[in-house]
Design goal:
seven-stranded mixed beta sheet; binds fe (ii) ion; alpha+beta; Immunoglobulin-like; 421 residues; 8 helices; six-stranded mixed beta sheet; 3 domains; 24 strands; Purple Acid Phosphatase, chain A, domain 2
């Protein structure tokens, strides 16, 4: 009898365990998606040359060899398209193995809302949203100075603060030195995690900084990780694709340059000259009303001592010739806005240069105010970010501390047009 009761208990226990397991698979959501190590994560939208009709989305996992794909549908539609992802192994000097999946989406409708989700193996993300560029010329973009850090919590706080206040931004720019060591994948993971809410919704336009071109032992290194991570428009100079590129948004043409001649001269001795030739054609070929250049290093010697340095001597004549309206730079971790300048001297028809400060934890107090600065502030107390607002009549730049306090703003009205306009 005792034996029969024992058998019944065993059977009831077995049924109970089976029920618990069945309930788990029936009722626990299968779309839990944070982190790159155990699930589908590190989702990143990357700027494209045509933001009305194209979108590039990538994501990262630790496991190689699994097929990945993206599904996309117009918002609240059942018309789902599936696009297989291209997977590559990221070059990790740390000895880790990361697979980067990338999908280029084309033939999108301008000004439309879409939903997408990504899958790798049997793992799948939740549906997420994005909106393509509309036909309007008005848009906002967030601009971040150097985010490099040991602790990326500071960068995460700045990114979240900017996104919390300007969740209607169309894309964001990071001005280079995104990370402190460009070959350290743990820093890249922390950087992406810090901006995860932005990266899953709006594209990033990254600029390469000198810290993207250092090896783990702090020697000069080709920026392999940066170039692999960001599937940027391939419209840069031959041999320097993704180092430099350009894109349009609204009535603004953005040209992005690589200023790392000091770090990369061994591999690219003509880095600046090649880009100068390309920039001339790039600017000459654009009919957009506004021209904005993004470059990590500035055009003067640092610390400032007067004359243009090699980077300035190379590019400033091109900025002047094609009436570039605004140049954003970084590197010195301070914020400075110059008067309109031509050939480095004040001229009402010239270019305004804005050094963008810092979004990460690193401060630097050895960057003095320049004589041509109309406004200067070194964000030693807390990080900062910028908001660029553009439409067909003006370019506005506002600079905020991490806590949202406005500390500078300027508006550029078009007083002259480029010779090719
Ligand atoms: Fe830098």
């Amino acid at each position: 009898m005792d034996k029969v009761i024992g058998m019944k208990k065993y059977i009831l226990g077995f049924i109970l365990i089976c029920s618990i397991i069945t309930s788990y698979f029936l009722f626990v959501p299968k779309s839990v998606h944070t982190g790159y190590d155990t699930d589908v994560g590190q989702i990143m939208h990357v700027v494209t040359a045509d933001m009305k009709h194209e979108r590039t989305i990538s994501w990262k996992t630790k496991k190689m060899g699994e097929p990945g794909y993206l599904e996309i549908r117009p918002k609240q539609s059942n018309n789902i398209s599936r696009i297989d992802a291209e997977a590559v192994e990221l070059p990790s000097p740390n000895g880790n193995q990361y697979a980067l999946y990338t999908v280029h989406i084309s033939h999108l409708t301008a000004g439309a809302d879409y939903e997408y989700r990504i899958s790798v193996g049997k793992r799948q993300s939740a549906w997420k949203n994005f909106r393509t560029e509309s036909e309007s010329t008005a848009f906002k973009a967030i601009v971040f100075g150097d985010s490099q850090a040991v602790d990326y919590a500071v960068w995460a706080k700045t990114a979240k603060a900017a996104w919390g206040n300007y969740g209607d931004a169309a894309f964001f720019i990071n001005m280079g030195d995104l990370v402190d060591n460009g070959q350290d994948d743990s820093q890249w993971n922390a950087w992406v995690d810090g901006a995860a809410s932005l990266l899953a919704a709006i594209p990033i336009a990254p600029v390469m900084g000198n810290h993207e071109a250092y090896s783990l032992d702090w020697k000069m290194a080709k920026p392999d990780y940066y170039l692999s991570l960001f599937a940027l428009p391939e419209n840069g100079p031959a041999g320097l694709k993704r180092h430099a590129y350009s894109f349009d948004y609204g009535d603004v043409h953005f040209s992005v340059l690589n200023t790392q001649q000091n770090e990369l001269g061994e591999w690219y001795p003509d880095l600046l000259e090649q880009q100068k030739e390309w920039l001339e054609k790039d600017l000459a070929g654009s009919k957009k009303k506004w021209k904005v250049v993004l470059m990590h290093r500035g055009v003067w010697k640092n610390p400032f001592n007067g004359p243009l340095d090699g980077i300035g001597q190379t590019f400033v004549p091109v900025f002047d010739k094609y009436h570039v309206d605004l140049v954003f730079t970084a590197h010195v971790h301070s914020y400075a806005r110059t008067k309109a300048l031509k050939n480095g001297s004040p001229d009402p028809d010239g270019t305004i240069y804005i050094t963008t400060g810092r979004s990460g934890e690193k401060v630097w107090d050895k960057s003095p105010r320049k004589p041509t600065d109309e406004f200067y502030y070194n964000p030693l107390d807390m990080p900062n970010y910028l908001l660029l607002e553009a439409d067909s009549s003006s370019l506005k730049v506002a600079a905020f501390k991490q806590n949202g306090e406005l500390f500078d703003q300027t508006e550029i009205k078009k007083t002259r047009l480029a010779p090719n306009f």
